[in-house]
Fold this sequence. Notes:
- The chain is an all-alpha fold.
- It has 11 helices and no strands.
Amino acid sequence: MSIFRIIFAISILLVGCKSYNSTNFTKSDTTAEQDSLSFELCKIYGSDQGIRDMHLLTSKEAGALRFSPYLDSVNFFKILDFVKKYGAPNERLLGKKNFSYECVDLAYKAVLLHTPHMLINNREYLDIFLREVEAGNMQMKTLITILDKYYWIRTDEFGNRRLLYGSQFGFPCLKYKHESDSARAVLGLPPLADSLFVVCKSQ
């Protein structure tokens, strides 16, 4: 999603919020709250995507490579606070129309895909999102894709991706079967079938 489309979506939501202030007799409190929450998510998504859309990540002179992890961390805690207060973003919470905006639907997914280490290295944070899965506010496949992103960017000495969960990023190497079984058990998932593991390079 380009930064211009993000700005457009935020503008639409902002107009909706302002409209409520002047016509609060014609717009329900529920809808106004949904618009307000959606607006917050769009702002977070804009912060997450803006630095990437502007190609600052390739500009060492701008210092973006050093700054990006800090911005990602700030956005992670914004999403964490949102989820702790309201639950993971979903259509029931935000309304069908608002949830159709990419910057609303993808806000927490994009931020978590850029900060999977926060869930891998902190069980408390992982449990918060696992409870959202159990509550039906978040899909398990979304959570395991986020977690596998952490391992997808890491390779072993033979160049194999160190995937563990079995997700959109692919399936684990057979030699990581024990680690995969353990990681999936933490989420309450059964082990992957042996046929789903792949034979990876060993030299």
